[in-house]
């Protein structure tokens, strides 16, 4: 009799695929945003609308009469645009894409390569390994649960 899904290697593999996939999709979105900001960046004035944990601020800005809302980590900018202690209601410089005005950041990117590039490569390899496990748990490339010694 085969083990149930929750007792097989497919269960921890599916949890891992979901977690790593969430991380990788977030990194891919960051690369997409960086690409468009590097391609056709413009500046606008944003109003900080709120702040929450991990130094993240919510902000809104207008482009061609349309209001956009986003969130980003508070950054330490050059002396003229410094707003490290900005609170709700204060203004900040926002960098947005002229062709995709909904894509914005509080600091312009230096490149499209994410800061956590090493982790992205490592997590991508782990994601592929776990997907192999989901497809065929008996494959030589699949995750194998450690065997527990049995009492004799």
As a percent range, the share of helical residues equals 25-40%
Largest sheet: 5 strands, antiparallel
Order of helices and strands: HEEEEEH
Q: Please identify, by name, the CATH architecture.
A: Beta Barrel
3D architecture notes:
With 152 residues, this protein is an alpha+beta fold. It has a single domain, classed as OB fold (Dihydrolipoamide Acetyltransferase, E2P) (Beta Barrel). 33% of the residues lie in helices and 24% in strands. The chain is built from two helices and five strands. The protein has helices at residues 10-40, 117-135, and strands at 41-52, 56-63, 66-73, 91-97, 104-105. It has a five-stranded antiparallel β-sheet, covered by helices on one side. Helix 1 runs antiparallel to helix 2. The two termini are 23 Å apart. The mean pLDDT is 85.
Condensed summary:
This protein has helices at 10-40, 117-135; strands at 41-52, 56-63, 66-73, 91-97, 104-105. It has 152 residues and is α+β, with helices and mostly antiparallel strands. Strands 3-2-1-4-5 form a 5-stranded antiparallel β-sheet, with helices on one face.
What key attributes describe this structure?
152 residues, alpha+beta, OB fold (Dihydrolipoamide Acetyltransferase, E2P), 5-stranded antiparallel sheet, 2 helices, 24% strand
């Amino acid at each position: 009799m085969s083990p149930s899904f929750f007792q097989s290697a497919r269960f921890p593999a599916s949890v891992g695929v979901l977690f790593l996939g969430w991380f990788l999709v977030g990194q891919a979105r960051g690369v997409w945003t960086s690409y468009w900001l590097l391609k056709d960046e413009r500046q606008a004035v944003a109003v900080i609308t709120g702040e929450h944990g991990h130094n993240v601020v919510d902000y809104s800005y207008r482009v061609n009469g349309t209001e956009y809302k986003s969130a980003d980590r508070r950054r330490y900018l050059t002396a003229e645009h410094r707003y490290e202690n900005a609170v709700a209601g204060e203004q900040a410089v926002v960098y947005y894409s002229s062709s995709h005005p909904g894509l914005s950041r509080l600091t312009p990117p230096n490149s499209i390569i994410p800061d956590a590039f090493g982790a992205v490569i490592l997590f991508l390899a782990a994601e592929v390994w776990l997907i192999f496990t989901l497809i065929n748990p008996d494959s030589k490339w699949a995750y194998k649960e450690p065997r527990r010694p049995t009492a004799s």
